[in-house]
Design a protein that fits this description.
single chain; 96 residues; mainly alpha; DNA polymerase, domain 1; 6 helices; globular
């Protein structure tokens, strides 16, 4: 792990590690093919949250990603990071 990434992950409170972002490569853990992840990286998506915050139209415009693949990737992103994606104001209020 390079020093910049390690410094980014270490919180101020002791040695506790806090991830501010989740690399898109971790989508393999939820069944996304490495080839599809590579296509996303080539299109400029490097984090799970970055992927989840993109529109479906933007993602389906990536060469080689079908609507079904995009849906599966977005579901995987939500599994890895529950805060990833869009929420309505009503949904946020209901969580509080």
């Amino acid at each position: 792990m390079d020093a910049a990434l390690e410094a980014h992950l270490i919180a101020d409170a002791g040695d506790e590690v806090v991830e501010d972002f989740i690399e898109i490569d971790r989508l393999q853990q939820v069944g996304i093919a490495a080839a599809d992840i590579k296509k996303c990286k080539e299109a400029g998506f490097y984090t799970v949250k970055g992927l989840a915050m993109s529109t479906r139209k933007t993602l389906t415009n990536v060469k080689g990603l079908s609507e079904n693949k995009v849906e599966k990737m977005l579901e995987g992103a939500r599994k890895l990071d529950a805060s990833a994606g869009w929420m309505t104001g009503g949904a946020v209020k209901a969580q509080v």
